[in-house]
Specification:
Length: 581
């Protein structure tokens, strides 16, 4: 069990770590390379036991997942030799697969558990300084994903599930005042809808004890309270009767665990929940209304999740929204040590001892920043403390779990420094692009275009529930397709104006020039039936993807035919831009 430390003690450790981040990075690299010097991967690179950064960069090339996939496949198939790490790879982590349509295998070991607990404790310490929490529970909308056993006998599941199943997770949650409301049977339940219903029910049963409302991703919190709007009367009926709905929850283990919490009829609580719901206007502030002692809402709210912040703020009322830590299935990068900053401006301070970090400068040929451009000549990576404020970089990480100079594919902007370690602002995934020919628009560009067009909707009390896009090159000239799901039916003239604005809002010179020259056709806006993105979610779940890591795919390629078919099959209205007519 991890030692329980005060928030101030954890912050003091963080201060010491970041005071001389360069020295910590040298020591971290030394430890990774010396611990794993005998591995096949490093032996074959000619390091010959050297552990300094110059030798490491000279001998070990930058790598993508495709470069290390054969090594991971051998481990998954049962090769127990020191392939990537000297110590054992205890399981395989699976990426969500929602960004590119396929799931990656990644090595997972006890070192990743340790770094996860460190980053959880660090972020919590700063949150607890800003929003003190004494005793209480966390209503966490978290879900274990399905797992399977590889040919070599290793468990394969998501990185989050690997963490949830670790002995350290629950004890750390208790140590940082984040004990969950729901029993394990709910978290690891076989059906997402049943687990979500039970998370809501357990939260209501412990309503006055809830201090934190959270999920891995903001989308999961929004989805939870969208569901609450539909099922709150059934939840009240269960509380009133002291018995779980036989139709909503059928999984035996889940029923048994939640029924033990219900115990007896509680009409007073049911009446109180109903009274609080009746007092709300359009569900604004439902979270503090139901959980009056909650201090904040917590989850990943950057990148593709930023779209859900507006709706989350609606549900949260005046409660602060706190962006969670920055990491990926491959490993962690940084903690949010300024939790009072709004999610849209959140930065993540790199912990210099959880991995060795390099950053590839991203520069356009004209000297400006090119956050997602893949066509320029890349500059040499720089070290953690060598980055420049205001510049864009791609993150490269070397981890304790066998990834060496691994290109994460994330684009970040350096917002400043905390002591001597950089504060990063997540910008976008580098390889998610809308492109027809010389145009290049990334997911951030798409988000800006959607936000711009959505301002037209706001005057009509309409909002974009979710969105995606596709570069349609099935006919010449190719054109962009943007898919919108709205909260209500929109007027055709308004939607046509939105379509025109979407087209104008893509300001990449290659796109604008191609549109004017007719080399790219008019942008197409396809309005979807309501609940279409619920179908997309179910599609991913049916293929084993985890709901806790679900991210609506913002750019759907032809390799993601299943999702493209769902989107295209649920179109109710189509508009073509007249912006360049």
């Amino acid at each position: 069990m991890p030692e329980k430390k005060s928030s101030e003690a954890v912050i003091a450790e963080f201060e010491a770590l970041t005071r001389d981040a360069a020295a910590v990075q040298r020591e971290t690299l030394h430890r990774i390379l010396s611990d794993n010097a005998g591995t096949e991967y490093l032996r074959g690179r000619g390091l010959a036991g050297r552990t300094d950064a110059a030798s490491f960069r000279a001998c070990v090339p930058l790598a993508t997942h495709a470069d290390i996939e054969p090594y991971i496949a051998r481990i998954a198939d049962g090769d127990a030799s020191a392939v990537l790490t000297a110590g054992p790879i205890t399981s395989i982590s699976l990426s969500s697969g929602t960004t590119q349509g396929n799931r990656k295998y990644l090595p997972f070991n006890q070192e990743l558990v340790k770094s996860t607990m460190q980053i959880y404790r660090t972020s919590y310490a700063f949150r607890n300084r800003a929003f003190p929490v004494e005793d209480g529970k966390a209503l966490q909308f978290i879900y274990g994903s399905r797992q399977f056993t590889t040919k070599g006998g290793l468990t394969a599941t998501t990185a989050t599930t690997n963490v949830y199943r670790s002995e350290e997770f629950m004890s750390t949650m208790r140590a940082i005042q984040s004990q969950v409301c729901s029993p394990d049977a709910v978290i690891f339940g076989p059906d997402f809808a049943q687990s979500l219903y039970c998370h809501l029910l357990c939260g209501l049963l412990f309503a006055d004890e809830v201090r934190i409302v959270s999920a891995t991703f903001a989308h999961s919190v929004v989805l939870a309270f969208q569901t609450f709007e539909r099922v709150w009367e059934e939840l009240c009926a269960d509380i009133r009767a002291g018995a779980l709905s036989p139709t909503r929850v059928t999984a035996p283990a889940v029923r048994k665990a939640v029924s033990a919490l219900l115990a007896a009829p509680n009409p007073a609580l049911a009446d109180e929940v109903a009274r609080r719901c009746a007092a709300l206007s359009n569900w604004y502030g439902v979270i503090p209304a139901l959980f009056p002692n909650a201090r904040y809402v917590h989850g990943i709210m950057t990148g593709t999740m930023e779209h859900y912040v507006k709706k989350l703020r609606h549900y949260a009322g005046g409660l602060p929204l706190v962006a969670a830590e920055y990491g990926a299935s491959e490993g962690w990068v940084g903690a949010n040590v300024e939790p009072e900053t709004p999610p849209e401006s959140a930065t993540f301070t790199v912990l210099p001892n959880i991995g060795y970090f390099e950053f590839i400068p991203l520069k356009a040929s004209d000297g400006g920043a090119a956050a997602a451009d893949t066509s320029f000549a890349e500059e040499e990576p720089v070290g953690l403390t060598e980055v420049t404020v205001g510049e864009h970089y791609e993150v490269v990480m070397t981890t304790f779990a066998g990834l060496y100079r691994y290109r994460l594919g994330d684009v970040v902007k350096v917002a400043g420094f905390y002591n001597s370690t950089p504060k990063l602002k997540f910008v976008c995934r580098r390889n998610l692009m809308l492109t027809i020919n010389i145009d290049k628009n990334n997911e951030h560009d798409l988000q800006l275009a959607v936000d711009s067009a959505a301002k037209i909707l706001a005057a009509e009390k309409l909002e974009v529930v979710d969105y995606s896009s596709h570069a349609d090159v099935s006919r010449d000239p190719g054109h962009y397709v943007v898919f919108w799901e709205l909260n209500a039916d929109g007027n055709d003239d308004v939607l046509q104006s939105c379509c025109d604005e979407l087209d104008r809002a893509f300001t990449d010179p290659g796109y604008v020039g191609s549109r004017k020259a007719g080399a790219i056709g008019p942008l197409e806006l396809r309005v979807l039936q309501r609940a279409t993105f619920q179908k997309v979610l179910r599609h991913y779940l049916s293929h084993g993807a985890p709901v806790s890591q679900f991210k609506s795919p913002r750019c759907v390629g032809r390799n993601n035919a299943g999702v493209l078919q769902i989107l295209s099959g649920n179109v109710v209205k189509v508009f073509f831009s007249a912006a360049y007519d």
